[in-house]
């Protein structure tokens, strides 16, 4: 089935007269008199050969080009794949303001000719089969422009402020370079590093390999010029500032048609954090710290943080065919990554909590804590993909090791405002831990196909996958607890040592035998039937040694109540039958409508067994549930106009009780929190109904895409908590099955752009709201708890070429919890963001961003206001703008406050934590880059 990407877009360049003229006409094949669909029409000024506008002919070969200058000589150029270009010169009369160019005939290319030379300018875009292609050389940009700036010039293409790319409103799923992922497939790495002058063309097409044939995803491919298919790029930079602040980043990257290698690193104490190689590569993009990115310290991150990190990524392509549009795409790629980091954190916080006990009685709790931690992490990964003619194999492997050292001290108080009973608690912990994780997966897919030689169908359509996840680790800590109360008989002191080691494994095998009925008959069955099964086996073993040190003692005495050896095992079996049916209705190059119905009858058998030295944890349970799901979806695709999709889904899940909920170990050193088990706890069953709607506008150069999702659910025998507070502020908790809970959630978004000449406006809006109702128990009394949340955000962005961009955003988030007559808690936060980026003459740039915050909670008397204002001014120099010097001023008003606030049923907590504050820094950077290491052959 051929798929056409509809394009109905024009644009206007700078002109010296009023653009009020219109040209119409018809394109035909000169020999067969066919009308020419999707031919490219480009209009130029005769003088200076300046491109004015362009568009494609419609399905009837007609064109109507508006917004043309009148009274001056113009030239129209028509091009189409397989045909010689044809041109016509004309002038639109200022009186009539219209001209009919009648019929323009196009001649087929004579394939017997060895060479055809076309002296006319190349068409800005053309249809090549089902692929829309943009010719990069038709768009004139600055010599240092990158692909991102090229895409902003293309008709119907929008690069949104969050990095998402849409073509005629349709979101691009993957951005490829010469048919392959470019360093992991991160969009920004390709957009902000590849020079525009290295690009031959941009292709947009439907992904034929998509698992959803009804509504396949759209991909974009950047085709590099023949002499630009290898090269390197990178960055080396560092800065030093006030208050001994420092930051350094570096990257060197090499790529060729078969190989991609990158080495990247970072060192800073300004809250710039990264957890993978991809993030570090984004930090070091050629345009990453210029106009298009606000790469500054994270002033919302809690505590003060120091990061040391280095990473390596490698990719080798062993295949010969790198064009994903081919019916048989030969994939044979190996990718690997190594990442090493050392992150230190210093966290100082204080909080106040008000706990409602009912009858006007409250507990007033304060907490002060200090934590110094250091986490060392190393991660290695490898992925292999191999695609054969009628099957494919993919495998992945990951190895992660983490070790942590921390010292934590905490001072807490609790006062009962009715009885005035007071307690204080001092706790100190020195802890170390290490953990190693190994996980991986392998998936084999086979496709049923027709053997034309033997005139029969062969093979079966299946998907078989295996995954594993293995962990082992150990930890040790020494904890001191000193609890004192108004009633001195309640005073307690502990000096306790914990030593534990554990290992776990999780193995999962999933099978899907597709279209089973189709194996028994020649014709395609009316309903496709798939047989699925998933089995998972989880095994966890832990040895825990706990000892106590008496006051004045020197040796830890074993604690027989907490020392434990346990073995936990589960088996999760999920067999099921899936029934599906697709309906299609289409007219070539006009529309395509489709219905998809899917029903999955699935059962779940869940076996749980735990044995332990502490015999009360010996538990053996088995469960059986029917967990059906269903989906109905409709897609209406009107070529060149719009695309709408609707879906309604129903799903079922089961939440099974854990050992920590059924029979936890009770550690009396945790004075304020005492957990109790509940062996009678039953699973909770969740039913959810959801509706989704998405809209893509494809008939206007001003892109629009929007959507909503509404989901509502019922949780039978909801697992909730029963809490009892004593007069000293100590909490006893146990999990219970409450009444059925209910919830409803809504999420919506709308994104709209307006383009005219070199100006662009973007409007982005998001909204989320949710409501839930469930039962809780406080001091033996049941309460109907209702929680409501709301978040709204909108941003307006304006940009002019790559010279000037500004954005204004507004955000609101809030929640309200009502627990019957027990408590009513509210919290909200307003934030306003203003950003401004300007490229001044002679490679000088200026960036600034201001963030205004206003928060309020029912636990605080006054609103909290603070403003974060950051600014940069820099200069790019040397040929190719490869060098940069920049001065940054961070938190200019010295107002950063990290205020946290959260509600938990009948309590509300407010507090502050130490954060990064004002500093100034000077940074120097050099960007080595070269595309095309070898001469064109």
Describe this structure in words.
By secondary structure, the protein is an all-beta fold. It has a domain at 1-122: Immunoglobulins (Immunoglobulin-like, Sandwich), CATH 2.60.40.10. The chain is 2% helix and 63% strand. The strands form 5 sheets. The chain has a 26-stranded antiparallel barrel. Strands 8, 9, 10, 11, 12, 13, 14 and 15 form an 8-stranded mixed beta sheet that branches. Strands 3-2-5-6 form a 4-stranded antiparallel beta sheet, with no helix packed on it. Strand 45 and strand 46 form a beta hairpin. It is globular. The two termini are 37 Å apart. The model is unreliable at 1-16, 113-120 and 290-294 (pLDDT under 50).
Span between termini:
37 Å
Number of strands: 51
> Can you give the mean pLDDT?
87
CATH fold node name of the domain at 1-122: Immunoglobulin-like
- Write the CATH architecture name of the domain at 1-122: Sandwich
The shape, in one word, is: globular
Low-confidence stretches: 1-16, 113-120, 290-294
Question: Which features would summarize this protein structure in a list?
Answer:
937 residues, mainly beta, Immunoglobulin-like, 26-stranded antiparallel barrel, 8-stranded mixed sheet, 2% helix, globular, disordered N terminus
Which SSEs are present, and which pair or pack?
Layout: E1 19-29, E2 40-45, E3 51-56, E4 62-69, E5 73-79, E6 86-91, E7 98-106, E8 125-128, E9 131-135, H1 147-151, E10 157-159, E11 165-167, E12 170-177, E13 180-181, H2 187-191, E14 199-206, E15 218-224, E16 231-241, E17 246-255, E18 259-268, H3 277-283, E19 304-317, E20 332-358, E21 361-387, E22 391-416, E23 422-446, E24 449-451, E25 456-458, E26 461-485, E27 492-514, E28 528-548, E29 557-558, E30 564-587, E31 591-612, E32 619-626, E33 629-638, E34 642-655, H4 659-662, E35 673-676, E36 684-697, E37 704-716, E38 719-725, E39 731-737, E40 741-756, E41 759-778, E42 781-800, E43 804-819, E44 823-840, E45 844-857, E46 864-877, E47 883-890, E48 898-904, E49 907-913, E50 919-926, E51 929-931
């Amino acid at each position: 089935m051929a798929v056409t990407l509809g394009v109905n877009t024009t644009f206007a360049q700078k002109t010296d007269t009023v653009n009020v003229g219109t040209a119409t006409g018809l394109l035909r094949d000169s020999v067969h008199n066919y009308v020419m669909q999707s031919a490219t029409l480009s209009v130029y000024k005769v003088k200076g050969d300046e491109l004015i506008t362009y568009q494609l002919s419609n399905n009837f070969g007609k064109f109507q080009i508006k917004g043309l200058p009148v009274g001056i000589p113009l030239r129209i150029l028509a091009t189409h794949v397989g045909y010689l270009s044809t041109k016509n010169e004309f002038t639109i009369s200022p009186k009539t303001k219209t001209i009919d160019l009648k019929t323009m005939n196009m001649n087929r290319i004579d394939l017997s000719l060895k060479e055809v030379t076309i002296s006319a300018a190349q068409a800005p875009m053309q249809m090549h089969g089902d692929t829309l292609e943009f010719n990069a050389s038709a768009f004139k940009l600055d010599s240092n422009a990158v692909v991102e700036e090229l895409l902003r010039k293309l008709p119907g293409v929008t690069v949104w402020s969050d990095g998402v790319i849409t073509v005629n409103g349709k979101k691009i799923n993957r951005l490829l370079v010469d048919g392959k992922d470019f360093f992991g497939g991160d969009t920004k790495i390709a957009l902000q590093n590849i020079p525009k002058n290295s690009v031959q063309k941009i292709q947009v097409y439907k992904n034929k390999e998509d698992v959803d044939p009804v509504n396949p995803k759209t991909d974009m491919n950047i085709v590099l010029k023949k002499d630009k298919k290898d090269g390197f790029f990178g960055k080396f930079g560092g800065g030093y500032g006030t208050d001994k602040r420092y930051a350094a980043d570096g990257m060197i990257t090499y790529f060729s048609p078969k190989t991609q290698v990158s080495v990247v690193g970072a060192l800073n104490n300004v809250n710039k954090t990264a957890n993978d190689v991809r993030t570090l590569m984004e930090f070091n993009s050629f345009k990453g710290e210029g106009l298009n990115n606000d790469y500054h310290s994270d002033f919302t991150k809690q505590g003060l943080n120091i990061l040391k990190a280095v990473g390596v990524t490698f990719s080798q392509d062993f295949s010969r065919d790198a064009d994903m549009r081919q019916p048989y795409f030969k994939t044979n790629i190996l990718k690997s990554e190594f990442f090493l980091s050392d992150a230190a954190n210093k966290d100082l916080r204080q909080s106040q909590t008000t706990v409602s006990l009912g009858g006007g009685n409250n507990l007033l709790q304060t907490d002060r804590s200090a934590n110094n931690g250091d986490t060392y992490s190393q991660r290695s990964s490898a992925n292999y993909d191999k695609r054969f003619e009628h099957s494919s194999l993919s495998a992945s492997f990951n190895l992660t090791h983490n070790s942590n050292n921390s010292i934590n001290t905490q001072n807490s108080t609790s006062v009962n405002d009715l009885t005035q009973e007071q307690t204080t608690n001092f706790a100190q912990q020195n802890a170390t831990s290490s953990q190693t994780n190994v996980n991986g997966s392998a998936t084999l897919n086979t496709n049923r196909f027709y053997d034309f030689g033997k005139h029969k169908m062969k093979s079966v359509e299946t998907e078989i996958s295996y995954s594993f996840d293995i962990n082992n680790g150990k930890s040790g800590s020494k904890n001191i607890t000193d609890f004192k109360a108004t009633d001195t008989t309640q005073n307690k002191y502990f000096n306790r040592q914990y030593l534990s080691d554990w290992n776990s494994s999780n193995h999962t095998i999933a099978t899907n035998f597709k279209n089973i009925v189709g194996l028994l008959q020649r014709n395609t069955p009316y309903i496709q039937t798939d047989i699925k099964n998933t089995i998972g086996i989880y095994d966890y073993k832990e040895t825990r040694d706990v000892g106590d040190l008496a006051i004045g003692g020197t040796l830890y005495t074993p604690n027989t109540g907490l020392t434990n050896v346990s073995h936990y095992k589960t088996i999760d079996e999920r067999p099921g039958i899936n029934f599906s049916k697709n309906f299609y209705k289409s007219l070539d190059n006009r529309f395509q409508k489709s219905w998809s119905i899917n029903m999955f009858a699935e059962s779940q058998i869940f076996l749980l067994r735990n044995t332990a030295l502490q015999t009360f944890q010996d538990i053996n349970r088995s469960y059986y549930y029917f967990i059906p799901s269903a989906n109905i979806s409709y897609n209406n695709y009107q070529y060149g106009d719009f695309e709408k999709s609707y879906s309604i889904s129903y799903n079922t899940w089961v939440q099974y009780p854990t050992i920590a909920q059924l029979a936890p170990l009770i550690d009396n050193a945790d004075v304020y929190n005492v957990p109790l088990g509940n062996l009678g706890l039953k699973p909770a069953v969740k039913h959810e109904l959801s509706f989704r709607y998405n809209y893509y506008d494809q008939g206007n150069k001003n892109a629009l895409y929007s959507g909503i999702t509404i989901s509502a659910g019922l949780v039978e025998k909801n697992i909730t908590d029963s809490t009892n507070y004593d007069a000293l502020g100590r909490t006893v908790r146990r999990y219970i099955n409450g009444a059925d809970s209910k919830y409803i959630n809504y999420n919506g978004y709308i994104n709209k752009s307006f383009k005219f000449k070199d100006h662009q406006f973007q409007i982005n809006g998001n909204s989320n709201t949710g409501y839930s109702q469930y039962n809780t128990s406080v001091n033996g009394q049941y309460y109907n708890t209702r929680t409501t949340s709301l978040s709204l955000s909108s941003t307006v962005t304006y940009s002019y070429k790559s010279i000037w961009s500004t954005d204004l955003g507004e955000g609101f988030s809030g929640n309200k919890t009502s627990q019957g007559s027990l408590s009513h808690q509210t919290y909200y936060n307003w934030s306003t963001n203003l950003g401004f980026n300007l490229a001044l003459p002679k490679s000088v740039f200026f960036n600034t961003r201001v963030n205004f915050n206003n928060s309020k909670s029912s636990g605080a008397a006054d609103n909290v206001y603070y403003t974060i204002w950051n600014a940069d001014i820099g200069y790019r120099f040397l040929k190719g703008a490869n060098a940069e010097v920049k001065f940054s001023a961070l938190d200019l008003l010295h107002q950063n406050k990290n205020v946290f606030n959260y509600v938990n049923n009948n309590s509300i907590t407010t507090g502050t934590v130490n954060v990064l504050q004002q500093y100034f820094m000077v940074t120097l950077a050099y960007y080595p880059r070269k595309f095309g290491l070898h001469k064109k052959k």
